[in-house]
């Protein structure tokens, strides 16, 4: 009898015999699952292989499968023409064309690429479809409003913006009224969405209603404006008190609308500073600019010193907070540093290191004209003329008036010697002209006197009449020029310090066309007698040298008239002989 075990073949027996059906079905199922998982992962791997998934587009540009840097560069490149193109908009019936920059319109390519990277479409959509991402666009609302608003024109009716204004200490309400025009926030949203997409952006004329209502305004009047000017406010600055009067409060409190008709009360720091300028001066320390002093004939910078000023921004905020309150009202504010406008280091950087030129003219002691010369010399002392800058005597002095301290002294007026405020300043003009002349400065404007006075060098001298005739020269050197002035009872000196460039001398030509003075008798209340001065014509050459080598020369010429010999007689004398011709 045969055992059943004999019917089970060993593994080595009959290797081509089929396996049981249950074993084959399990392997097939396992294989199918594996293939399915792998197949499902294929689109995910493809879609998310880079920073930005496949299938992501911005303004029609496919940025999928790229890094954010690559996508940003691609957007700038593909959209360059659209970004540079003029923007066309229609405001109601009016068409306006403007540059994107005029409205502050910009595409932030990097931010747009980062937004695209955060977009994750479904894997199969990324492989076989697409997903659109909105660009990151910004604009300047104020600039856009300035571009569009003029095109509203007669199509709209301007609204009345609410406000409270002061008539002295009395608050006066300006009631709001709606109008029609451009809704600037809606317009901005439309422009932002339509730019780079549409050839023309349509913006309707719409109702414009101020944000602050009449009821709001009434509350502001009773709750702020009226109590604000009912009593003064005491401001304490570093332990010292300053009174802010109701008048000063009314002048600095601004209750006006913003661009949307929303009333925003504020104390204007600039206005507060202006109305309290005198009061603030008592609790402030002005900054001291660096200056030059002469030490052993050399210019030496004197250090600057910072000042302290009332912190008007803090004072304005504190003042606004207490204005609705009853008296007594007190606020505090500190001080802030005020830097000097000119520092010692800035002076060192100017290149003012040595004496460049100096010139002196003489005058007789005890004359009125000497006071005017000294006054202008004091005014000019310490003047710094920067590289490329111009020294102008008329700009320095302005109108020479008695109120400024000038006195009456002789001037040439219509060929006669008359008295006027500031007479004698031409002596300083001549001295400063020659200092600039010998420093190599460029002659901007000057004119010699009509008559030649021997206290001045011939031809290279200058007169001045405010405002018609100036004495001015330009500093064409790469370094600044410092002007120093000194006077005595018989002379005035102008010295210029900087970096010396030239050695300058003057060569004169001979006098020609010499004319003798006439004798003229004058019966005038304002009469100055003269001895008469011959007239003549003469040339002078300014010679520029460096290291003994002549570089160039400039010609100056002038034709002096003969000054008459004026004789003065009393006005009441009717026997005055006719003028001698």
From TrEMBL:
**Which chain regions cross the lipid bilayer?**
28-50
Zinc found in the keyword field:
no
Per its UniProt entry, which superkingdom is the organism in?
Answer: Bacteria
Pinpoint the YoaR-like putative peptidoglycan binding domain residues: 213-331
Q: Which Pfam families match?
A: PG_binding_4 (PF12229), VanW (PF04294)
Keyword annotations for this protein, in alphabetical order, are: Membrane, Transmembrane, Transmembrane helix
Entry protein name: Vanomycin resistance protein VanB
Record the organism.
Answer: Virgisporangium aurantiacum
């Amino acid at each position: 009898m045969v055992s059943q075990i004999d019917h089970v073949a060993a593994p080595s027996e009959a290797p081509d015999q089929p396996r049981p059906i249950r074993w084959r079905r399990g392997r097939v199922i396992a294989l199918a699952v594996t293939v399915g998982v792998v197949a499902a992962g294929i689109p995910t791997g493809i879609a998310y292989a880079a920073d930005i998934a496949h299938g992501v587009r911005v303004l029609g540009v496919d940025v999928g499968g790229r890094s954010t840097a690559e996508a940003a560069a691609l957007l700038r490149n593909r959209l360059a023409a659209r970004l540079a193109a003029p923007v066309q908009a229609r405001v109601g019936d009016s068409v306006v064309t403007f540059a994107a920059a005029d409205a502050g319109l910009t595409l932030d390519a990097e931010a747009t690429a980062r937004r695209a990277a955060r977009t994750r479409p479904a894997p199969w959509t990324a492989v076989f479809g697409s997903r659109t991402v909105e660009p990151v666009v910004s604009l300047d609302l104020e600039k856009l409003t300035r571009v569009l608003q003029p095109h509203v024109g007669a199509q709209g009716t301007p609204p009345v913006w609410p406000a409270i204004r002061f008539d002295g200490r009395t608050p006066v309400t300006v009631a709001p009224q709606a109008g029609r025009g451009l809704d600037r926030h809606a317009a901005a949203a439309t422009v932002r969405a339509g730019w780079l997409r549409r050839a023309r952006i349509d913006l309707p004329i719409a109702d414009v209603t101020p944000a602050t209502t009449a009821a709001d305004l009434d509350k502001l009047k009773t709750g702020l404006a009226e109590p604000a000017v009912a009593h003064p406010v005491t401001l304490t600055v570093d332990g010292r008190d300053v009174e802010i009067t109701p008048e000063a409060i009314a002048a600095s409190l601004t209750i006006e609308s913003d661009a949307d008709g929303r009333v925003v009360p504020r104390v204007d720091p600039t206005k507060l500073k202006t109305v309290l300028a005198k009061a603030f001066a008592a609790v402030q320390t002005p900054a001291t600019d660096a200056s030059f002093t002469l030490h052993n004939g050399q210019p030496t910078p004197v250090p600057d010193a910072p000042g302290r000023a009332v912190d008007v921004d803090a004072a304005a905020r504190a003042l606004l907070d207490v204005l609705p309150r009853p008296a007594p009202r007190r606020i505090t504010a500190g001080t802030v540093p005020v830097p000097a406008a000119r520092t010692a280091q800035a002076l060192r950087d100017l290149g003012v290191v040595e004496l460049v030129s100096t010139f002196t003219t003489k005058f007789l002691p005890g004359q009125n004209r000497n006071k005017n010369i000294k006054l202008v010399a004091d005014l000019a002392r310490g003047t710094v003329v920067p590289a490329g800058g111009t020294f102008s005597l008329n700009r320095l002095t302005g109108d020479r008036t008695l109120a400024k301290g000038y006195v009456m002294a002789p001037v040439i007026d219509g060929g006669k010697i008359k008295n006027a405020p500031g007479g004698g300043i031409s002596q300083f003009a001549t001295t400063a002209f020659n200092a600039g002349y010998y420093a190599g400065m460029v002659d901007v404007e000057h004119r010699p006197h009509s008559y030649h006075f021997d206290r001045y060098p011939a031809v290279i001298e200058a007169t001045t009449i405010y405002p018609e005739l100036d004495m001015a020269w330009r500093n064409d050197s790469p370094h600044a020029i410092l002007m120093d002035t000194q006077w005595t009872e018989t002379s005035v000196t102008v010295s210029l310090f900087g970096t010396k460039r030239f050695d300058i001398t003057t060569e004169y030509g001979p006098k020609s066309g010499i004319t003798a003075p006439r004798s003229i008798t004058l019966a005038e209340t304002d009469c100055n007698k003269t001895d008469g001065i011959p007239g003549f014509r003469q040339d002078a050459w300014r010679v520029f040298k460096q290291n003994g080598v002549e570089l160039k020369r400039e010609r100056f010429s002038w034709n002096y008239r003969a000054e008459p010999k004026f004789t003065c007689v009393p006005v009441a004398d009717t026997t005055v002989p006719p003028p001698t011709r």
